[in-house]
Amino acid sequence: MNNQHPELFHRHKLNPILTAADWPYPVNSVFNPGATLLADGTTLLLCRVEDRRGHSHLCAARSANGVDEWKIDAQPTLYPDPEHFPEELWGVEDPRITYVAELKKFAIVYTAFSREGPGVALALTEDFRTFERFGEIMSPEDKDAALMPCRIGDYWALIHRPVSGPKANIWISYSSDLRHWGSHKLMLESRRGSWWDANKIGLSPPPIETAQGWLVIYHGVKMTGAGCIYRLGLALFDLHTPEKCLKRGDEWVFGPEEPYERQGDVDKVVFPCGYTVAPDKDTLRIYYGAADSSIALATGSICAMLEWLEQKGVTPS
Ligand code: BMA
Questions:
Q1: Ligand 1 centroid to 212 CA: how many Å?
Q2: Tens digits of per-residue pLDDT, 230-268?
Q3: Is residue 50 in contact with ligand 1, taking CB distance under 6 Å?
Q4: Ligand 1 centre from 260 Cα, in Å?
Q5: pLDDT at position 316, please?
Q6: Which domains are present in the chain?
Q7: Are 62 and 80 in contact (CB under 8 A)?
Q8: Cα separation of 39 and 21, whole Å?
Q9: For ligand 1, what atom is nearest to the CA of residue 118?
Q10: Mean pLDDT, residues 68-73
């Protein structure tokens, strides 16, 4: 507990809640899970699992309480299929799950690691057992993407993070069919210089719909002489025009502090790709990768995050 800064995120005492040792087959590491609640209230995590080649696949873990007693699929759940989808040659990573009520399906947007670099791929599923792959919907270099849960006006909207030169900013693109994307708009820019979110930012979990707007938890990467530090910040976007930023916090709200976050295959990384909302409709359970090695859980209040942005956030000019 850091007394100088009121904490918006509270780590679970059982952290890390999932590690490679829990896996039913040999793996190197498990991290950066997408998350959702199934119709019966089960928490499903779609975990990024890295094997000893260094390639990743996705594997589902299910739990009644979202904390322990995970039932992990005995085999990989979504495995790279480079024969039909060449963009998956070097693995699939970092899934973000959105339940799309209009389709009655879950959309999984993930990183497909091709010879050309990481791009964004989409698959739909009803049950996390069979998947309809759409292939690569954003060409490399692009990642950190999620589908918004409903159409904005007439169009589907995808938040993603293309890289252009030294800059990596968050963009939003629109589509009428989930396959062809256009009307690209810059959504949030990385800062410069010594900022915690200088040069490289990206969406973390999918945006959270609130009465005040879309609440976005994003990651910022500070490059230091001792390597990168991945931390999280908050921003709020207009409900009807999500590229319009209403508020952005200057300070990070969550960063690597615990040993399992500071030391691992990649030191000093907290990287959430998913959350669930508790029955009180306010408590977020944020599932995050810790140091690219294990999976941890933190909770936070949506109201408290909005309040923090209201008090400390800045409206971009
Ligand atoms: C990012 C992503 C994440 C990873 C992080 C830290 O670029 O690739 O999957 O957790 O780097 O290594």
A1: 30
A2: 999 999 999 999 999 999 999 999 999 999 999 999 999
A3: no
A4: 16
A5: 87
A6: 26-314 (2.115.10.20)
A7: no
A8: 29
A9: 8
A10: 98
| Distance, CA of 21 to CA of 37 (rounded, Å) | 24
Given the DSSP bridges, would you call strands 167-168 and 132-138 parallel, antiparallel or unpaired? unpaired
**CB of residue 275 inside a 6 A radius of ligand 1:** no
Contacts of 21 (CB under 8 A, 6+ apart): none
**What is the mean pLDDT of the segment spanning 183-192?**
97
Q: Which atom, in ligand 1's list, is nearest to the CA of 266?
A: 12
What distance in angstroms lies between residue 317's CA and the mean position of ligand 1's atoms? 30
Query: Ligand 1 within 6 A of 142 CB?
Result: no
Residue 155 identity: Y
Phi-psi region of 126 (alpha: psi -120 to 50; beta: other; left: phi over 0): alpha
Ligand 1 atom closest to Cα of residue 31: 10
Provide the whole-model pTM.
0.97
Side chain identity at residue 224, one-letter code: T
Tens digits of residue pLDDT in 19-66: 999 999 999 999 999 999 999 999 999 999 999 999 999 999 999 999
Evaluate whether 256 touches 262 at the Cβ level (below 8 Å).
yes
With a 6 Å cutoff on the Cβ, whether 261 touches ligand 1 is: no
